[in-house]
Amino acid sequence: MLPVSRTRYTARARRRGARATLALTVLLALPGLSACRESPDKTIHIRIATGSPTAVYHAFGESLAAILNRELPDVRAEVMVTAASAENVRLLGAGEAELGFTQADVLPADPGPHPQMAGVARVYDDLLHLVTTANSPVQTLTDLRGRRVSVGAPGSGTEITVQRLLTAADLDGGQVRQQRLGLDDSVAALRDGRIDAFFFSGGLPVRAVAQFAQDTPTRIVDLGEWTAPLRVGNPEVYVPRDIPRSVYGIDAVTTVANPNYLLVRADLPEHLVREVTRLLMERRSELATAHPAAGRMSPRSAIATSPLPLHPGAADYYRASKP
């Protein structure tokens, strides 16, 4: 009798197992359940590559991250402190950031048929500051010969622009005693007398420069005459722009300006980039409270991100919102 009972028990167990397998299959076929099983965490992480904590990129990025976190439920955005433009482009290309700010002159003139990044918007213009003290003998660019000058942090857009400027002025090849310092370190070094001047490229106003000018008699050197020589090799990048007296409370000057872009990894989904672009444009007044430069964006100028194309998601938003 024992063998017969075992046979019946085994058959019943097999039938129960078959029914359980069928039930599990049906459950997994229901909408949403199979997806949850395969990807239990649907959070989209967005890393925004910015720059120095006292510069425009960081203020802009912090405000943008707060907006994305508040208005896109599945998104968790965070800001990365970086050396700025050149490092941001590297991080995007390496897949170590999803969004990033950069100066236009950092980008290759020909990004190729399949670039790793694309444009979200032209956001504002960076203006090159050559900052020194009011009693300094540095009154023109050529006065930098033989002097100690911070040319920007390694990996920054400032450093790239300044090297081109020094070449145009025949000040390359060791004629300037260059130090590669970030913005905060440059301000501290000038205040302490360890350097004679520093360069920084940023949107108006640069908070660290404004704070320095409040505490120390300051001069910003006029660089307007050097825009034309810089345009010889970069005709679509550099333009002259004024720094009015109202910005820092010191004499107005003309300097070299450089378009500034918000970029995104090219492989990000179109619907996500469309939403980022929408919030970037629709929340301009809120972004401007973080830094006035953000308030200068407009859909008409935002689409100009040459040499990079707009991301399809960004292009879709601009087409749909065109009046």
From TrEMBL:
Domain of life: Bacteria
Pfam families reported in the protein's UniProt record: NMT1_3
Signal peptide: 1-35
SUPFAM superfamilies in UniProt: Periplasmic binding protein-like II
PANTHER family named among the record's database cross-references: SLL1037 PROTEIN (PTHR42941)
The protein's name: TAXI family TRAP transporter solute-binding subunit
Keywords: Signal
CDD domains reported in the protein's UniProt record: PBP2_TAXI_TRAP_like_1 (cd13569)
Keyword Signal: yes
